[in-house]
Write a structure and sequence with these properties.
By secondary structure, the protein is mainly alpha-helical. The chain contains three helices and two strands; from the N terminus they run H-H-E-E-H. It has a two-stranded antiparallel sheet. The two termini are about 15 Å apart.
């Protein structure tokens, strides 16, 4: 992941991604009325790839990292927030 949450993705990146998706959908001759809805869905998928909190948890691929954190909050009764992360590669 590159970002923590979708809110952390810079607006210019979202704008660029949206324009690329729009051009692809127009080239595929999708109906103009549906393009915005399709873009929203595709951006959601994009966020799941580049945002840590939207990715599936490695030990339980049916829950996102955000859902696991929320479950820990409920279980422990403490306000848990992920502020930063580091990615290590070998």
């Amino acid at each position: 992941p590159v970002y923590l949450t979708p809110a952390d993705v810079p607006a210019q990146i979202v704008e660029k991604e949206s324009s690329i998706l729009r051009a692809q959908l127009v080239a595929e001759k999708k109906p103009e009325k549906m393009i915005d809805a399709i873009i929203v869905g595709k951006l959601k998928k994009y966020y799941s790839e580049v945002c840590l909190m939207q990715q599936y948890f490695i030990k339980d691929d049916e829950k996102t990292v955000e859902q696991v954190v929320q479950q820990a909050v409920l279980k422990l009764g403490e306000n848990i927030q992920v502020k930063a992360f580091s990615r290590l590669a070998l």
